[in-house]
Amino acid sequence: MNAIKHYILQCRQFFIYAGIFSFVINLMTLMPAFYMLELYDRVLSSHSNETLVMLTILVVFMLLVQYYVEYLRQSLFLRTSATMQRLMQKTVLACMLNMQSQSRANRRGLDDVHTVQSFFSGSGVQAVFEVPWIPVYFFVLYLFHPWLCLMAVVGTLILVALTYLEEKVSAESQKQGQDALRQSQDMLDSALNNLEAINAMSMREAVTSRWSKVHDKALSHNIQSATKSASIAAWSRLVRNLLSTLALAVAAWLAINDRTVTPGVMIAATIIMGKVMVPIDRVISGWRFFIKARHAYSRLNKMLADYNPDTINVTLQHVEGHLRVEKLFFAVSREREILRNLNFELIAGEALGVIGNSAAGKSTLTRLLVGLYKPTAGAVRMDGADIFQWSQTGLLGPHIGYLPQAVELFSGTVAENIARMAEVGAHVDKVIEAARLVGAHDFILRLPQGYDTEIGEGGRLLSSGQRQLVGLARALFGTPKLVVLDEPNANLDGPSELAFMRMIREVKARKITLVIVSHKPSVLRDVDKLLVLEQGRQVNFGRRDDIMHNTVPSDNTGQVALVKGAQPA
């Protein structure tokens, strides 16, 4: 069963009630027609005031019931759509945050959820419940006269054909317009995230021009789709108006030439003919929204097809932090292999330094070590458990500390960011302890509200060095058993780097396994082992002092460079 259908079926009780309400509404819809029938054929001929009053009271009561039930049904549709959104959005957001699902199309998953939710709360879903009643109206018209039924059937078939034609001529252009619009939104988000580079290097005109081309393409497709839909909608209105006029004319002709058709039947048939057109009119007017909802439905199913976080159950009662990498390979395609045959092991409390030239695969290795990427072959294990499978359960996080090369903070306070966006009240001591451990406590106290200072979106109110210290504190928050740091000292000044060195010794004393990627020999002074990577291969692994004999510092940068001829371990 596909993922979104599962959520819809969870709301099937709502749809059952909606079907019952629709039965009442459509039954009441016939009342005005029969009122006119009785009015012309019985009241006017009998001149009975009592019959007129009783019929009018009855019809008014029926109309009140109809509109009250319509209100209940609309409220039910709104509740149903809101319930479906709540059911879907948590899973969709979790899938969006999953590193394995990070395609460009998936970044708008919540927009697709909103599109599906809007369809189920609008007029489109109402038409779904009213279309099945069209044969009932046909039957009533047949009881009046077969010709009236035939006219309604022919008119309905013409409108259905026009609806099908609209699907054929506008669906593809509308889909292309949606895709181009999503692409333009992605480009806009990317531009807003790189404002400093755009303004510093005078890229505004080029970026604006590039975005305008994509957005103009989206507008062109949308205009093309809307124009075709408007043309077909105009034909549909013409057919409905002609059908109403011809129905009245045919009913009048029958009333003149066929004694079984009375003036009351003529008026009632005209009213029912109009009721037949209402569901079809709703289908045609909401067809573009239906197409959008269908495409969103398809994208959500594709997005969630391979996302099943409940299929793996990896739990350990006691975590020590023993890390073992076994025959590890990682490739993004057959032509592009990033890591090849990595093998090394760290016991709990050991510190590993990872060095290598640019594009050696160091950052990719850090992501594999914390379970963000699934290895192409081999495994990363902590205490014997596959760390990628463990990460899919959501239970690995408290045991892992991670600082990516590009530090990203959240809108909120300093304390909330250190506490990994958990409620700070229950973790105040741990927040302060982590900040002290990385040497961030003093600068945090100097902020306007200390730990309660709002740092803005992405931490923009902090300097790059301060953001790095907060990110380090976040990595060490709680009781992690494995801490992986990618270029942790890239933005640190001298005193902060000394504090970082003290942190390494403290982390090792606490028996926390530590992995550090860095080019600076000073930062790797206190690590126990070194791993040397070159173009994705494990060139060397062993004790730090032994490995450093095969490396030399660069004359200009002080970074670690590989000595040619180094042999793999």
Average of the residue pLDDT scores: 81
Gross morphology: elongated
Gyration radius over CA: 35 Å
Number of helices: 20
The main sheet comes to:
6 strands, mixed
| Assigned CATH class of the largest domain | Mainly Alpha
Across the major sheet, the strand order is 6-7-8-3-9-10
Gap from first CA to last CA:
50 Å
What is the CATH topology assignment of the largest domain?
Answer: ABC transporter transmembrane region fold
- What is the total number of structural domains? 2
What's the β-strand tally? 12
Portion of residues within helices: 55-70%
Give the amount of beta strand, in percent.
5-15%
Structure notes:
With 569 residues, the protein is of the alpha/beta class. The chain folds into two domains: 3-307, ABC transporter transmembrane region fold (Up-down Bundle); 323-562, Rossmann fold (3-Layer(aba) Sandwich), CATH 3.40.50. The chain has helices at residues 3-10, 12-29, 31-46, 49-96, 109-121, 123-130, 134-144, 146-193, 195-200, 204-257, 263-285, 287-304, 362-369, 387-392, 414-418, 428-438, 441-445, 464-475, 494-509, 544-548, and strands at 323-331, 337-346, 351-356, 377-382, 385-386, 400-403, 482-486, 513-517, 529-534, 537-543, 551-553, 560-562. The strands form three sheets. Strands 6-7-8-3-9-10 form a six-stranded mixed β-sheet, with helices on both faces. A four-stranded antiparallel β-sheet has the order 2-1-4-5. Helix 3 (31-46) runs antiparallel to helix 11 and helix 8 runs antiparallel to helix 10 (204-257). The relative contact order is 0.08. Residues 552-558 and 560-569 have low confidence and may be disordered.
